[in-house]
Amino acid sequence: MSNGVNNKDRRNLRILSLLICVALAFTLMANLFKIQILDGEKYQTMAITQQLREIEIEPHRGSIYDTNMKMLAQSATVWNVIFEPANLPKDNERAEEIVKMMSQGIGLKKIKPEEEEKSGPNDMSLAEILGIEPEVIETKAANRGSYYEVLKKRVDRSTYERVVKFIQDNNISSLSLVETTKRYYPYNNLASTILGFVNDMNQGAYGLESYYNSILSGTSGRLVAARNGLSGDMPFEYQKLYEGTDGNSLVLTIDATVQQFLEKHLEIAYVEHDVQKWVTGIVMNVNTGEILGMSSKPDFNPNSPMVVDDPKAQERLVGLEDEKYAVQLQKEQQTLWRNKCISDPYEPGSVFKLVTAASSLDTGTATTNSGYTCPGYQIVAGNRIHCWKHAGHGNLSFAEAIQRSCNPSFMQMGQALGTANFSKYFDSFGLTEVTGIDLPGEASGIYHPEEKMGIAELSSSAFGQTFKVTPIPMLTAASATINGGYLVQPYVVKQVIDSDKNIVESYEPVVKRQVVSSETSEIMQEMGEVVVATDEGSGRNARIEGYRIGGKTGTGEKLDNFVDGEQVIEYILSFYAFLPADDPEYAVLITLDEPVVGDAQSSTIAVPVVAALLEDIIPYLGIEPSYTASEEEEEETTVMVPHLIDQKPHEAQISLRQKGLKTEIIGDGATVIKQIPENPTRLPKGGTVILYTDDTVVNSMTKVPNVIGKNAEEANRLVINAGLNISIEGQNLEGGKTVVVAQDPPADSNAEIGTIVTVYFTEPVAEDE
Ligand SMILES: [Zn+2]
Questions:
Q1: pLDDT in tens, 229-270
Q2: Distance of CA 389 from the midpoint of ligand 1 (Å)
Q3: Among 56, 190, 466, 697, which has the highest number of CB atoms less than 10 A from its own CB?
């Protein structure tokens, strides 16, 4: 009995001396590894003749948190499994046995049945445990002078524990486990184009991981060891640990919840409009430049950045082989990794009209009393440039020119502004420079410099054509027209913190300059609101009851698109929105690059995407309503659920929103294939219609809660929380003394989510008081 214990103790000691167990606290290790010269003089000579080796100890890479300290990127402890053939026994026969044990599992030592009961059987070879081919071990074993052959990198804790047990069970002294870290992104694709990813060396390769690499990575430690090489039992003659420092962590301005909503709606838009290139979206605080959400879709999962899982990208890879495949694969990967919000200039189209209008008001070359004429075109330098409305808009006021996004009006406005003023403001709005956002790969725009700007260039630039900027400076420029006139610097990192969460550095908002006066900005707020709030406004589908929202649609014509030498006009559709319109706090810019279904040349298809996003983030961000519904709107308590089958989800949502209903879109499909409740059903205002777009998920069931005996408020909460709708029948509810006496469907039955639960009230029997 005591013998067994001793054996175990001895084995544990062996493990301590064999494993370079950096997993232990560094301070403890530093003491253990203080210079241990067993024999000073002997060391002097041995150091020359024997192998002195150095192992780099990776520091712990800092984490990345969202603004509410949700973990977006972290480093988990993993281990590299190192084979030291030089420490195999000198006896060749015995060495062969050990190699066979490791590679093929031949001759594994039997452990006592009672131990096996406790710690599991030991019938697997090391190759099997690691999931590698036996030949890998055999080949490396042939390199008998080597102390460092990597068998497998970054194994997780459970594999680590099995390897430790393998070493213990079989008394092997030629294996070691070196602690290292592995980057892990708990939310997979979420914010991937911002976060980027790390390479195989655990260094930032893209995104924030790359931009802030020196802050996140820390500095390496080193373990220096001299090996005597004479026996495998006590390999270390001399060891010293030089401690490194761990990396600091980043706290972002990104809000994971806003980011989730943004990505959900970008994904839906990408599919419902069969977008050929990509969609982008940014949510920013217009007063500080803090980015709350930023994404482009399709994107990638930073846990496996090499995987291309966008179906369109996969299609382009089909049938390619060898070199061609490799080249295309790399191209697809880089496209998915790239943050198009900051790296891909586009023709902003009419969103830019906000800048022309604000510049014109600010210089006085236009006032709210200015008038414009649109016969459907404008002749510029002998060329006829059409309005998007070929029949023409007729006579327009300044506000109407913006509301209807009339091109000839803006050519006239631009010409009145003149090239010098236009260029001065274009520059002042930050469109000739990068924004300086703290992300790598920001691209500059392409534009007509003042000295090369003739009337043709001025006229087309005035309505947002013939130049390119990336979405991020377009967003900050548009926001400067409505936030009081200030150009802010967008940013995504607000703090650097150490491992104890102490703040090491804080980044404050930067206002670069005032571009237009606060009076101009106030007028622009009204102009933007007209676009959304009036029935003629191109942004009317972004209306959300109770909220004052401003915006501007955009249709960019891609003039540099050629297929086989022929110019093919493709479109980038966008919508910029800000709210509250009279005191803006947040702005959103969404772009769809080459949508091919729906009204693809109409900028209005980006509007419902923004509206859907706003509908989700408004309650989350706690934005207070600016007004309450009118009395007549209030009077109607139930509304007819419309027929929505075959509609695009974001478009179906418009008619529901207009009726005062909420929506939940479930699935990854392009059109609505099922709705709950169905048409025709009356649903109380504020109810939720479930829209399914994907037949793999059409039957989401839930259990109907028991609401018998509950008052109206409790019944409502229970039913809504279960994902169901409620319809109240019977007695009036004033005073809250009524309780539910019956319900349909009954309690505990299964119902599809969105189903209406009808509850019946009556006065409870009066209690004696
Ligand atoms: Zn027009």
A1: 444 444 455 667 788 888 999 999 999 999 999 999 999 999
A2: 6
A3: 190
CA angle at residue 529 from 528 to 533, to 5 degrees?
Answer: 135
Sign of the C-alpha dihedral computed for residues 165, 168, 174 and 176 taken in this order: positive
CA 408 – ligand 1 centroid, Å: 6
With H, G, I as helix, E, B as strand and everything else as coil, classify residue 200: coil
Q: How do residues 85-99 score in pLDDT, each as one tens digit?
A: 988 888 889 899 999
pLDDT digits (tens, 9 = 90+) for 575-601: 999 999 999 999 999 999 998 755 555
CA of 376 to the centre of ligand 1 (A): 5
In the chain, the percentage of residues whose pLDDT exceeds 70 is: 86
Ramachandran sector of residue 407 (left: φ over 0; alpha: ψ -120 to 50; beta: rest): alpha
Question: For residue 312, which of 265, 262, 275, 346 has the smallest C-alpha distance?
Answer: 275
Q: Identify the band that residue 200 occupies on the pLDDT scale cut at 50, 70 and 90.
A: confident
**Around 703, how many Cα atoms within 13 Å sit in the side-chain half-sphere?**
4
Looking only at the bridges linking them, the beta strands covering 64-65 and 249-252 are parallel
Check if the beta carbon of residue 726 is closer than 8 Å to that of residue 720: yes
Query: What are the pLDDT digits (tens) for 439-468?
Result: 999 999 999 999 999 999 999 999 999 999
CA 518 to CA 287: how far, in whole Å?
13
Centre of ligand 1 from the C-alpha of residue 350, in Å? 12
Distances, alpha carbon 29 to alpha carbons 17, 24, 34, 425, in Å:
12, 7, 8, 62
Question: 386 CA to middle of ligand 1, Å?
Answer: 8
Q: 582: which residues sit within 8 A by CB, 6+ positions away?
A: 525, 529, 548, 626
Cα 377 to middle of ligand 1, angstroms: 7
Residue 692's contacts (CB-CB under 8 Å, 6 or more residues apart) are: 666, 667, 669, 672, 673, 674, 675, 676, 698
For residue 758, what are the β-bridge partners? Answer: 727, 744
- The vertex-196 CA angle with 194 and 199, nearest 5°, equals 170
The pair of three-digit structure tokens given for residue 544, joined into one six-digit string = 């959300």
Distance, first Cα to last Cα, the chain: 76
Q: What is the pLDDT of residues 711-734, one digit of tens each?
A: 888 988 999 899 899 988 876 555
Tokens 């009209």, residue located:
353
Q: What pLDDT does 556 receive?
A: 86
What tens digit of pLDDT does each residue of 417-431 get? 999 999 999 999 999
SS3 sequence of 413-482: HHHHHCHHHHHHHHHHCCCCCCCCCCCCCCCCCECCCHHHCCHHHHHHHHCCCCCEECHHHHHHHHHHHH
Q: Distance from the CA of 379 to the center of ligand 1, in angstroms?
A: 13
pLDDT at 570: 85
Q: Are strands 550-558 and 562-563 parallel, antiparallel or unpaired?
A: unpaired
Distance 275 CA to ligand 1 centre (A): 27
CA of 456 to the centre of ligand 1 (A): 17
The alpha carbon of 388 and the centre of ligand 1 are apart by a number of angstroms equal to 7
pLDDT at 243: 81
Query: So what's the pLDDT on residue 35?
Result: 31
Distance 109 CA to ligand 1 centre (A): 87
Q: How far apart are alpha carbons 593 and 281 in whole angstroms?
A: 12
- In this predicted structure, the answer to whether residue 174 has a pLDDT above a threshold of 60 is yes
Residues 498-517: tens digit of each pLDDT: 989 999 999 999 999 999 99
Q: What spacing in Å lies between the alpha carbon of 469 and ligand 1's midpoint? A: 24
Q: How far is the CA of 600 from the centre of ligand 1 (A)?
A: 19
Sign of CA dihedral 641, 647, 650, 651: negative
732 C-alpha vs ligand 1 centroid, how far in Å? 54
Q: How far is the CA of 528 from the centre of ligand 1 (A)?
A: 18
Q: Are strands 550-558 and 570-579 parallel, antiparallel or unpaired?
A: antiparallel
